Amino acid sequence: MNRWQNLWRFIPLFGLMMLLLTGCGDGTISAFKPRGPVARDQLFLMKLSFGIMILVVAVVFIIYLYVLVRFRKKKGDKDIIPKQVEGSHVLEIVWTVIPIILLLILAVPTVQYTFKALEDHRNDKDAIHVKVTAHAFWWQFQYPDLGIATAQDLVIPTGKKIAFEITSADVTHSFWVPSLGGKMNANVGLTNVYYLQADDVETFKGKCAVLCGASHSLMDFKVKSMDPADFDKWVAKMKTPAVIPADAQRGEQIFKDNCMACHAVNAQGLGAGPNLNGFASRELVAGILPHNDESLKTWIHDPQSVKPGNSMPKLGLKDDQINDVIKYLNSLK
Question: In terms of CB atoms within 10 Å, which of 32, 151, 182, 283 comes out highest?
Fold first, then answer.
């Protein structure tokens, strides 16, 4: 008995720990900190639905407590059955109409914002069009109107609508940037459309929101929002071929012999693997590792140890060859 009494003492401690842990997390992947109009609309819907639920729960508990107090049997009372109200037309109308009203209050703005997220960008001639293709376990981004393609780092201008066409190359994935808007499935053979927009210059984290394989949890990407002028400069740089220094040309040849079959290094290049054009300017390696020589060496030496189930084979390069390839990749600015 004493053992159980001691365990009960830990309940307040566990409750306090749970309360503190609710404040932990990354603010860049929180739907409760919107950074764009789509995310703000969706947060409004979440608050609206939560408010309706709180209202319903409060009314039910108030009625429940009223009944407990009003009709409780007091000492000395005889067995009296309260007046029965079954079959009351008034009550039946009340508890039928009120839920319908609450559902309409939630349904009307939900439908409105849903169609707005799907269709609004079509009326904006200045929208930036981006085709997103999900792969196991990386993301490909094409800008068909701008003639460039990249991977893992999605770059967008602030204050402009980004019109997305989302599909998948293998299995079902889900494109999700919590700070900018809700998720959208990437399905094989189908194309889903919606738009996002960033208010300020920031870097956001994106994730795959559907279980898609062994490295689902590692299928991350970055969204960088820039001033429109800086975005135009980035597009121009992406179209400018990198100047390979003399000490990186040996690595360039090794790359061509072993990697070029899957990876492109030009503005529009698409292949079985990510386009590495501008690779040296990316913040992460394979979407998850810090961008440094040690991470690159680990990734090239054994990709499966970093992202199990990915499509990149173990090339079997020697250490000096890997170092040369790293020097070449670091020149792709």
Answer: 151
